[in-house]
Amino acid sequence: MRILYFAWLRERVGLAEETVTPPSEVRDVASLLAWLRSRGGVYETALADLSMVRVAVNQDYARPEDPVAANDEVALFPPVTGG
Amino acid sequence: MSVRVQREDFDTAAELERLSRDNPRIGAVVTFTGLVRDFAPGETVRRMTLEHYPGMTEKQLNAIVQEAEQRWPLDGCLVIHRHGQLDPGDRIVLVITTSAHREAAFEACAFLVDWLKTKAPFWKLEEQGSGERWVEARDSDDAAAARWQR
Questions:
Q1: Beta-carbon separation of A82 and B51 below 8 A
Q2: What is the mean pLDDT of residues B70-78?
Q3: The model's pTM
Q4: Chain A interface residues facing chain B, Cβ-Cβ under 8 Å?
Q5: Residue of B nearest to A16 (CA)
Q6: CA–CA distance, B86 with A38 (Å, rounded to integer)
Q7: By three-state DSSP, how is residue B24 classified?
Q8: Closest Cα of chain B to A78: distance in Å?
Q9: Each residue's pLDDT tens digit, B108-134
Q10: Of A13, A44, B97, B106, which sits most exposed with the smallest number of CB within 10 A?
Q11: Nearest 10 degrees: CA dihedral of A1, A33, B55, B53?
Q12: Which of A24, A47, A46 is closest to A34 using CA atoms?
């Protein structure tokens, strides 16, 4: 699974992108975020406040209950500020 | 309809001409141009970097434009959003809608601007005298977009 980080999430994690293999019980966005955060260190800090984290799965906005699978592109980013 | 995400500046007059030329059915053209403003309280913003999510940006902008075209009788629609380094006063976004009548063009343009502010994956990083700061999303932008929900 490809994980992309943008804006201050990218800065806090220290990575723009990584490939991860979550355990089989990670099936939706909520459990993926919990697992990413459980890795501790910068992940725990960057994902401390999930109200500030938006998620897209395969470039569409996703909710906590939306499914994720091994070949998905999952992006984590703060609320957008374009326009 | 057309969506472009680019570093380069755009020429509003040329885009407007391209959209409305040789189409006598068009009775109204509405243009919105967004500029980089110096909005940090008490500090002077020297420059801004606009980060985006290549791929998702185009996908979301296209979806928003398609929705506008379903909701209003538009003849044409163009969205250009810049990314990269921008200075105060620079043009950052252009939205043009054309229609037979003004109501559709006005409403669709406002809809597109409100939605792209809350849905298009862009993030503003301001450079100030004291360092850099990520601009925070504003509740008023969410409220502006919410008025279009059906």
A1: no
A2: 96
A3: 0.91
A4: 4, 6-8, 56, 59-61, 75, 77-83
A5: B53
A6: 38
A7: coil
A8: 8
A9: 999 999 999 999 999 999 987 778 899
A10: A44
A11: -130
A12: A47
Closest alpha carbon within chain B to A75: B53
Q: What is the dihedral of CA B124, B127, B131, B136, to 10 degrees?
A: -20
Determine how β-strand B28-35 pairs with β-strand B91-99: antiparallel
In tens, the pLDDT along A4-52 reads 999 999 999 999 999 999 999 999 999 999 999 999 999 999 999 999 9
DSSP string, chain A: -EEEE-HHHHHHHT-SEEE----TT--BHHHHHHHHHHT-HHHHHHTS-GGG-EEEETTEE--TTSB--TT-EEEEEPPP---
Beta strand B84-86 pairing with B122-128: unpaired
* C-alpha triplet B90, B91, B96: angle, nearest 5°: 170
Tens digits of residue pLDDT in B33-71? 999 887 666 667 678 999 999 999 999 999 999 999 999
* A2/A28 Cα distance (integer angstroms): 14
Is A6's CB within 8 Å of B117's CB? no
